[in-house]
Amino acid sequence: STLDHETCEHLDDWLLAAAVWVFVVVVLTDLQQSIDMAELYCRQIPTVPESKVLRFRDVDGKLVLTQGGFSVAHKVGVFVFVVLPKICYAFFLLVLGVTYLIFSTTNVDVILNCTALVFIMDIDEFIYSFFSLARERQVL
């Protein structure tokens, strides 16, 4: 019993390094998704004078955009109110999260804090997956 208590009460450097690595990878993956989203909205969706519903067609199992597009104002709005905050949030959480992990004092704290930080980074994906239809997720 005493050995188990002592094992949990100290901090292993390898565990801290692994937790920081896992968290950084999760944040960088989220940043990559944000950059992909920006690239999709800016380059792959046509710019039209007035935003129109995007229409897709299934061609050999792959969805192809057939008509529609976003206006410049729509693209700027998506970038300013969706993509940019998502990127800022990721950087902010990266700095605070790594600092939070580094100041953890025990193995239990490192595991708990890393799990909480990864959950915070992924909660938007969980909510999106729960509330959206599979077809909508495929289009996006």
Structure notes:
With 140 residues, the chain is mainly alpha-helical. Helices cover 73% and strands 11% of the residues. It has five helices and two strands. The protein has a two-stranded antiparallel sheet.
Shape: elongated
Helix % is over 70%
Radius of gyration: 21 Å
Count of helical segments? 5
Regions with little confidence, pLDDT below 50 for 5+ residues = none
Distance between the termini: 52 Å
Major sheet size, sense and barrel closure: 2 strands, antiparallel
β-strand amount: 5-15%
Order of helices and strands: HHEEHHH
DSSP E strands, number: 2
Structural class: mainly alpha
Mean pLDDT: 87
Main sheet: strand order: 1-2
Throw out a few tags for this protein:
11% strand; mainly alpha; elongated
SSE layout and pairings?
Blueprint: H1 2-9, H2 13-44, E1 52-59, E2 62-69, H3 72-102, H4 107-131, H5 134-139
Antiparallel strand pairs: 1-2
Provide a compact summary of the structure.
The chain is mostly helical. 73% of the residues lie in helices and 11% in strands.
